[in-house]
Amino acid sequence: DSLGTCIPTLQGRGVTVCWDASRDDPPIQPANLSPAAGAAGITLTPTLQSSPFCQCNLGASHAASQWRITTTAGDYAHPFFDSAPDSSNLTMMAVPAGRLQPSVTYHWQVRHQSDDDWSDWSTETSFTTVPAADIQGLDPASGRRRQAVIVLISGSNFEKDEAVGFGPGITVSWFIVNSGTEITAEIIIDA
After folding, report:
1. Would strands 125-129 and 39-42 be described as parallel, antiparallel, or unpaired?
2. The pLDDT of residue 3
3. pTM of the model
């Protein structure tokens, strides 16, 4: 078969084909690997993962990546999150805590930089975060100021909870997710 037939066939199977290493081309467009496209129930601090850096030029190195997240498909004019060029998180990037909200669909892209050029942005994919917890009960329901109280919280959608908050005036010392319907936490009612 000719190169014109074999190369598209191999690329369609996810194989990167470099056939002229003397060219000065930009890095190859990365792919979004994780979370999987359309995944649901994703934690609020997911690790985004791209395909490995690939550039057909001999001696090219992966200098940086740039990661961006939006809540509106295809609209990155004002992304919800933009890592800026990042030389540490080249093929994996943990989304910092406090950035994502429950039950929201996010769209994301990444691009790779060689020593002197950027790839195209990856094809956008999306994921939806875990549903918000639904609190149905709190026992005990009251306490005194400056008192450490261990409370049992009942409800649903607690499986992947990574933080517990009760709002202003209450500090959470620690918490344990007992099950999808129960959390135990120690709280202190501020003075």
Report:
1. parallel
2. 45
3. 0.68
